[in-house]
Structure formats: C-alpha cells, structure tokens
Amino acid sequence: MLPRLPATRAPYSLLALLLLFVIMVQARLWAPHWDTHNVVAVLTWDAMGYYLYLPAKFIYHDLSHLTFAADIMREYAPSSSFYQASQVPGAPEGQLVMKYTAGLALLWVPLFWLGHWAAGWLHYPQDGFSAPYQVAIGLGGMLYVLLGMGLLRRFLLRYFSDVVVTLVLVTLVLGSNYLQYSVYDSAMSHHYLFTVYALLLLLTARWHERPTRLGAFAIGLTLGLLVLIRPSEMIAVVLPLLWGVGSMADARAKLVLLRTRWADVLLLAVGGLLGVLPQLVYWHHATGHWIYYSYGDQHFSFLKPHTWQVLFSFRKGWLIYSPLLVLVLAGFGPLWRQHRALAVPALVFFVLNLWVVSAWDIWWYGGGFGQRAMVQSYAVLALPWAAGIAWLLVPGRRWAVQAAVIAATVLLVNLNLFQHWQYQVSIINPEDMNRRYYWAVFNKTMPSQADYNQLDDARGLPQAERNYQPRSLGKLDFEQATPDAQPGVSTEQGFYSRQSFRIDASRPYSPALELPLGPAGLQGGDYVRASCRVFSDYGAWGNKLVVSVDRAGKPIAWTGVRLQNPGIVYRSWNLVYVDVPLPADARPTDVLKVYVLNENGSACFVDELEASAMAPASAW
Fold first, then answer.
1. Is residue 598 part of a domain?
2. In the prediction, which pLDDT does 619 show?
3. How much is the pLDDT for 440?
4. How distant is the alpha carbon of residue 353 from its chain centre?
5. Which of 33, 440, 458, 596 is the most buried (most CB within 10 A)?
6. Does 201 reside within a domain?
7. pLDDT tens readout for residues 138-181
8. Alpha-carbon span 279 to 107, nearest angstrom
9. What is the mean pLDDT of the chain?
C-alpha cells in the first residue's frame, strides 16, 4: 500500500480552489459569446459535433439523417462546412453518422434540458442552438471544472501537504493552457477529460487502499467514460494496472492481488463495457456495425509520430506555449525518488500519451491555444507537479535554487496569462503560427501590419519604413464601374464612393490591377507595396491580398497575406498592405498584378487596390 498522509483540514487549497473558480467564471463573463451567429459562439466547430446528438435525439428525433443541420448551418454558421457528420458508406444517400463520439453529449444532458427550458421560458427558438443553450453549455459546463479541480485536490492531499496542493492548483490554472480550455473553449472535451482523469486517480487510489467490488466497477465505468469521450484515452488503463508498482516485488504482489480479486477485475471490465455501450449502440443503429471508424481519412501514424513538433514547434508546441510545464516535467525526478510506486504509472502514462498525441496525422489538432491534446493529462502530471514543489519547499534547500525556481515560475505564469490575452484578441493565431510571427508579436499589444504579414511569411522591407519613399504606380477604385457591366461591383459599401467589389466563395477573384514592369519603371530587386481597403461584418476570414509577377501568363513570384488580422475593425474600412521584392531576374515585359483572392472564406468588400514602388529615401 502506498504511504499516505493522515487526513487533516486543508483550508489553503480549499480557499484557492474557490477563488480560482470565481476568477475563471469572471473571465468567462468577460468574453461570453452566447448569442453570436458565427464561429466564435460556444457550440461551434468540434463542439457542435460533440453536442449534435442532443438536439438530434430530443428535438428533431433524427439521428440518422440530420436534416435539421442545414437550417442550423444557415442560421448560426457554427463552422465553415458541415464536417461533423458524414455519409455512411454503402447506405442510401443522406444517411449520416456522427464523426465524434457521444461522451460529452452524455455529460451535457442536464445542461441541454436546462437550456431547452430556458429557451421556451425566455421566448427563444427551441432549436438547440439559440442563446439559452449556449449559456447552459458554456457556463454550466464550468461546474465540471469545479468538480475536476475538487477531485484533484482530494487526490493530491493523500500524498502532499495543503500548501503544496494549493500551489499546484494555482500554477495549473494560471500557468498552463488549462485556463483556455476550462474557461473560453469550455465546450471542448479537454477539461471534461481532465475531470474524469482526476476521478479515475481518486478511485484507483481508494481501491488499492481498500479493494471493493463496487470500487472496481466504478474504475471500469470511469475508464469507459474516458473512451466514450475520446477513444484514444483507452491508454488510461495503465494507471490502475500499474498503480503501486515501483519495483519487481511490487509487480509480483500486484499480480497476486489481481488473481485473488479476480471478481473485481471482471467487474472492472463490465463497467468499462457499459461505459462505451452507448456509442456501440449508436454505431450499430447508424451503420449496422458495432464498431465504426468515423474519422474518414484522418489516422494515426504510430511508427512516425510528430513528437518534436508537438513539443517544440512554434505552430503548436506544447512547451512553447505552456513553458511552465518544463518545470513540471522536472518534478518526475523527485517523484521517482520519493514515491516510485506513483512515478511508474504516471511516467508510463505520460510517455504513452505523448506518443499517441504525436502520432495523430493532424498533430496540431486544428485551432486552439498551444497543444490542446495534452490538457487532460495535467491531472496525472499533477503528481510530478506536486513532487517538484514539495522538493523545492524542503527546509534547508539552498535559497538560490528556491529563488531561481520561484522567479522562473512567476515569469512563466505572467507569460502564460499575457499570451492567453494575445490569443483572445487574435494576435496569437489559433492554427497558423510560425517562428517569425511568434517573435514578431512577442510581448506586443499592438503589432503592426508588417508584423501580421509574418504569419504568411511575407518578410517585408529590409529596413525601417521611414527609410523609404512610396511612389504610386496605379489604383483600382471601382468608382466608374457598374454592377451590370462588371458583376461583383456593389453599391452597398464603398471607401470614397458608394461602390466597391464584393468577393465571396462563389466569386473568388477580384479584378486585378495589372502593370507591366518596364513602363512602371520597375526592375528586379525593387520593393513594391500592394494595398487595399477591406470591409466586413464578422471578419474577412479566408481572404488574401495577393501580389504576383507574371511572365507569359504564368506567375513567377506570388505572395498572399490574409485580410483578417487582429488590427481589423469590423464594419469599418481597414487598410491592409504587404511589401514584396520583385524577382532578381524580372524582365521589363513581366506584369505586376494586385488582386484579392477568396479561399472559400467569408464574404467581404474590397476597394482601393493600389500598387506603390518603395524606393530608398536616399534615391530621391
């Protein structure tokens, strides 16, 4: 049996838990997004896929065809396409199967009915996606956050002091991307999985202290729930399997215990099967198969995991965007020395989890802050987290070491909170970060257009802009065009006049400003600034300002920068520009082209397409 501390009052960790939860709720209220009819609402993207079971079952009674989804997509625009379900192979056209498993939908049942009741009472549409449903899932789901931190606290207090547990909770919330997924992206699966992992740890510890059949069944049911939420969490079975195994003698004793209590093992298996049974029943109903792979052409590559990218890439590196976790991983050393029977299951789980996370072909896991697929593992990593803090607080520890670790922790917590703010205002991009852009916006609250362009690898002018004198080469302003003569010209908006060009997915190219290099006085190596004005209701997502150099009708150089960036003000005309060098081998007959490209993005209005030569000021 693992040594545990005697049960005592733990006021500091309880107070910290309650204060942190109040802060988290307040942070959620600062960015509510309850009633937005676009992709920043609560029930959007993957969260819509987790949730879709509930309105399909209880409102529309249509789990097989999801015909109501077209109306939801049109009214609420929760994602750019309806990827949350797909055609069942070999079935009649229109018979669909959900992409995501039903675990979160099961946890959301009471919240769904609360939102449904509130929608009727407040005269909102009872369609599953109006504001009351968004509020119920967004705010009500935070109760699972409170439950998860409470369970983790109770578990850690078995082995660590109240002060240590307090510091774990504080640094967990303020120093990692758990904050993003427990507060702002709270309809994603990660903090729910964190809560279920905390429950699994507590149940596992209790069973090993006093084995009971009910406890074993509860462990199995919890494992089943983890798999029901996210099938790859089946690796969690190593935690109860290796619990208390710190040596070969412990391993032999564990085998004897499992043989002796074979009925408990059987009940654990039964509990696990019951946990995943709802999904098996649904798959059989939807596809005729008890087990069905619903992710299409998305797969794991276990022999070629993307481990380096998952840990250190600037796109989504776990230790880049949650660098405090470096100190947490260092806690495996003290944990191994002090509680090896805890270190073995925690370390094996961490290695297996990192392997599985890294093996997913879409290793960046779509939009999000940092490596979101690691968030649920923080419940297990709380063990080395606590062991490292306990080691640091041992009386007699060299003050210089303590001061260095404390200073590093404070700085990394501050960095985490600031980068969370940058993410909320879209300075940190949810999907396309790179090294140059990361350092361009590092510690900035108001990046420049040149900084934003680094996101598309447009390197800009080699010197400060004040060292250049712009010379206008031409402008396309749509003032003389008519909608009849030039489809796409719109009289709804305009920068100077009441005319501009409306671009959308059905009309992906704007008219181009075309300038032969020779008559324009341009040659290879010269810098050109391409610019335009853009107006949008909810953001010009998926649109780019493009500058290219064409030879014989084919581009020999091409640069595109997104029109949507954090400097954009919605429902206002915004200036977007990019500075690019002409190819060194450019010819006088080559043609400079400036236009806007819609890459299956949102509609927007563009005006004032312009090209200017950026000549060094010394040349004037």
1. yes
2. 54
3. 96
4. 18
5. 596
6. no
7. 999 999 999 999 999 999 999 999 999 999 999 999 999 999 99
8. 14
9. 95
The tokens for 372 are: 């979101």
Quote the tokens at residue 23: 């802060």
Phi, psi of 483 (to 5 degrees): -60, -35
* Residue labelled with tokens 């599985």: 356
Name which residue leads in pLDDT, 9 or 319.
319
Two structure tokens written together for 180: 């993003």
Q: Which residues contact 404 (CB under 8 A, 6 or more apart)?
A: none
Task: Enter the tokens of residue 405.
Answer: 């670790």
Locus of tokens 């509990």: 271
DSSP string, 432-498: ---HHHHHHHTT-SS--HHHHHGGGT----SS-GGGEEEEEEEEE--SS--TTTSTTEESS--SSSS
Select from 151, 108, 116 the least CA-distant residue to 378.
151
Kindly tell me if the per-residue pLDDT of 537 is higher than 90. no
Using alpha carbons only, how large is the chain's radius of gyration in Å?
A: 28
Residues comprising the chain, all counted: 620
User: Exposed, middle or buried: residue 50 (CB in 10 Å: 0-12, 13-18, 19+)?
Assistant: buried
Q: What is the DSSP letter of 553?
A: T
Helices and strands, number each (H, E), in the chain: 23, 12
- Residue 453's pLDDT is 97
The pair of structure tokens assigned to 236 is 């969690």
Report the C-alpha gap between 184 and 175 in whole angstroms: 15
For 167, what's the count of Cα atoms within 13 Å in the CB-facing half-sphere?
A: 19
Can you list the positions of beta strands (E) in 504-590? 513-516, 527-535, 543-551, 554-562, 574-581
A 10 A CB-CB count for 264 gives: 21
Domain that holds residue 596: 460-619
Return the bridge partners of 475, or none: 610
174's tokens:
């303020």
Q: Whole-angstrom Cα distance, residue 598 to residue 507?
A: 8
Phi/psi of residue 392, each to 5°?
-65, -30
Report the C-alpha gap between 20 and 25 in whole angstroms: 9
Q: How many CB atoms lie within 10 A of CB 290?
A: 11
- Rounding to the nearest 10 degrees, give the CA dihedral for residues 453, 454, 459, 464: 70
Tokens encoding 453: 């362009």
**Domains in the chain, number:** 1
* Structure tokens given for 296: 């299409």
Nearest alpha carbon to residue 365 among 288, 444, 436, 306: 306
At residue 297, the 3 state secondary structure works out as coil
Quick check: is 608 in a domain? Answer: yes
pLDDT recorded at residue 592: 98
Could you report the per-residue pLDDT of 338-386, keeping only the tens digit for each? 999 999 999 999 999 999 999 999 999 999 999 999 999 999 999 999 9
Task: Classify residue 285: in a domain, yes or no.
Answer: no
* CATH number of the domain to which 527 belongs: 2.60.120.260
Residue 560's region, left for phi above 0, alpha for psi from -120 to 50, else beta, is beta
Residue at token pair 């961490």: 350
pTM (global) more than 0.85: yes
pLDDT confidence bin for 618, thresholds 50/70/90? low
Residue 192 contacts residue 394 (beta carbons within 8 Å): no
